[in-house]
């Protein structure tokens, strides 16, 4: 699977699992994404896909790297519709 395709799938999953925040952007907690069965089946390396999407300015999140447990409550915010 190529990165572009995985980023597109990630955007779909953020829309499916997320909700609109106060700024009108869709956001989801990292823990929700990481622990979702469908996401687990779709992404071999969720963290790598998140980093690629952040580099492309499609999403944003605080920090450089998200780790299960430690960063479960970090918001992953969709910047593009």
From TrEMBL:
* GO biological process terms on file: regulation of actin filament-based process
Q: Report which superkingdom the organism of origin falls in.
A: Eukaryota
Pfam families in alphabetical order: Costars
Q: Which stretches make up the Costars domain?
A: 1-79
Q: Which SMART domains match?
A: Costars (SM01283)
**Of which family is this protein a member?**
Belongs to the costars family.
What name does the UniProt record give this protein? Answer: Costars family protein ABRACL
Q: Which organism is it from?
A: Cyprinus carpio
Instruction: Read off the lineage from the record.
Output: Eukaryota, Metazoa, Chordata, Craniata, Vertebrata
């Amino acid at each position: 699977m190529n990165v572009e395709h995985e980023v597109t799938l990630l955007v779909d999953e953020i829309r499916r699992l997320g909700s609109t925040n106060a700024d009108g952007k869709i956001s989801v907690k990292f823990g929700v994404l990481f622990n979702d069965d469908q996401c687990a089946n779709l992404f071999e390396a969720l963290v790598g896909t998140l980093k690629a999407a952040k580099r492309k300015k499609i999403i944003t999140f605080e920090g450089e790297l998200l780790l299960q447990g430690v960063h479960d409550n970090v918001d992953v915010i969709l910047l593009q519709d």
